[in-house]
């Protein structure tokens, strides 16, 4: 997959671009609803013998449009988004810089510049996709802006139960620790990756060595607590437990939560390595213990419960 970063005005030359079927949207999370939009474009590209593309934006529009929001955390930060789109068979990814200039374009200018001039011949979007200044362009009027130079398919809302699958709903589930439900809507486990950094080695002293992860500040973290996780490292997958929190038993003044992972049945040094964490189940909230002994007692229970959890999942119960 080729990744192409664009801003307004871009300098790509129409005649040098392949005819393309594209999905357009912000696609944070690339949940089951987004996947339907993207797969429709990929399948259409194959049947028309074209390239497939995803057109997305960075940063999130709210960073530009809302004065009180300086920084957004994403269910799928850019790198994660790229990995998933590659797996979905997308040929090219256009990332458009969302800034004041882009937000003030008239709908027709936006379509001329970022659809027609990118040689998009077939466009797929969700029913609620909007474009142009103040979102005046939408899927009801896009045919007027297409100048009959491309076809449009609109994907209706995808539901789970009675509710639309949305990034907002997934964020709420993650914040409340309902990781299983969030994963169901994503169609895969939530993934957060990080580099193992030097910690205070207290885990090793109590018999549970942990890898402390340095996480991209763009990654949305779930609710504080203890989780059943799987750890992907060098083409191997391990089971383990992750503590996301402030480590209150030993630390009083931590500003930012940290992620500490104990990988079951693994003892090698991981400093400087990148681990990919799959978050499978919220087990309990973070607790401040009166002693290291009480903490060890609880960790032993956590390990037993998490091993049982993965055992029952693997056995299909």
From TrEMBL:
Residues that span the membrane, as ranges: none
Keyword terms, alphabetized: ATP-binding, FAD, Flavoprotein, FMN, Kinase, Multifunctional enzyme, Nucleotide-binding, Nucleotidyltransferase, Transferase
EC number: 2.7.1.26, 2.7.7.2
A single BP term in Gene Ontology: riboflavin biosynthetic process
Signal peptide: none
Gene Ontology terms, MF aspect: ATP binding; FMN adenylyltransferase activity; riboflavin kinase activity
Broad class of enzyme this protein falls into: transferase
Coiled coil: none
Record carries keyword Hydrolase: no
UniProt cross-references to InterPro entries, sorted A to Z: FAD_synthase, Riboflavin_kinase, Riboflavin_kinase_bac, Riboflavin_kinase_bac/euk, Riboflavin_kinase_dom_sf, Rossmann-like_a/b/a_fold
Residues of the Riboflavin kinase domain: 185-311
Catalysed reactions, semicolon-separated: FMN + ATP + H(+) = FAD + diphosphate; riboflavin + ATP = FMN + ADP + H(+)
Pathway connected to this protein: Cofactor biosynthesis; FMN biosynthesis; FMN from riboflavin (ATP route): step 1/1; Cofactor biosynthesis; FAD biosynthesis; FAD from FMN: step 1/1
Entry similarity comment: Belongs to the ribF family.
Function as written in the Swiss-Prot or TrEMBL entry: Catalyzes the phosphorylation of riboflavin to FMN followed by the adenylation of FMN to FAD.
NCBIfam families hit by this protein: PRK05627.1-3, PRK05627.1-5, ribF
Protein name as annotated: Riboflavin biosynthesis protein
Organism expressing this protein natively: Lentibacillus salicampi
Organismal lineage: Bacteria, Bacillati, Bacillota, Bacilli, Bacillales
């Amino acid at each position: 997959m080729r990744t192409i970063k664009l801003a307004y005005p871009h300098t790509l030359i129409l005649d040098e671009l392949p005819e393309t079927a594209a999905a357009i949207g912000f696609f944070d999370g690339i949940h089951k609803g987004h996947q339907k939009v993207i797969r429709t474009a990929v399948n259409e590209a194959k049947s028309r013998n074209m390239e497939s593309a995803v057109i997305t934006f960075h940063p999130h529009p709210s960073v530009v449009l809302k004065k009180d929001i300086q920084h957004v955390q994403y269910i799928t930060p850019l790198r994660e988004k790229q990995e998933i789109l590659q797996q979905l068979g997308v040929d090219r990814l256009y990332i458009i810089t969302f800034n004041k200039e882009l937000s003030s374009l008239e709908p027709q200018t936006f379509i001329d510049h970022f659809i027609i001039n990118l040689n998009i011949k077939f466009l797929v979007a969700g029913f609620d996709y909007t474009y142009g200044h103040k979102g005046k362009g939408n899927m009801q009027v896009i045919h007027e802006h297409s100048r009959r130079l491309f076809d449009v398919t609109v994907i209706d809302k995808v539901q789970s139960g009675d509710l639309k699958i949305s990034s907002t709903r997934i964020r709420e589930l993650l914040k409340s620790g309902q990781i299983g439900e969030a994963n169901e809507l994503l169609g895969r486990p939530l993934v957060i990756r990080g580099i193992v950094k030097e910690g205070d080695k207290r885990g090793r002293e109590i018999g549970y060595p942990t890898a402390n992860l340095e996480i991209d500040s763009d990654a949305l973290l779930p609710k504080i607590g203890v989780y059943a996780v799987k750890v992907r490292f060098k083409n191997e997958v391990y089971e383990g437990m992750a503590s996301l929190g402030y480590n209150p038993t030993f630390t009083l003044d931590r500003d930012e939560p940290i992620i500490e992972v104990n990988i079951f049945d693994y003892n090698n040094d991981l400093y400087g390595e990148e681990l990919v964490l799959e978050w499978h189940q919220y087990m309990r909230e973070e607790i401040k213990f009166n002693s290291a002994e009480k903490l060890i007692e609880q960790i032993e229970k956590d390990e037993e419960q998490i091993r049982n959890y993965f055992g029952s999942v693997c056995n299909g119960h």
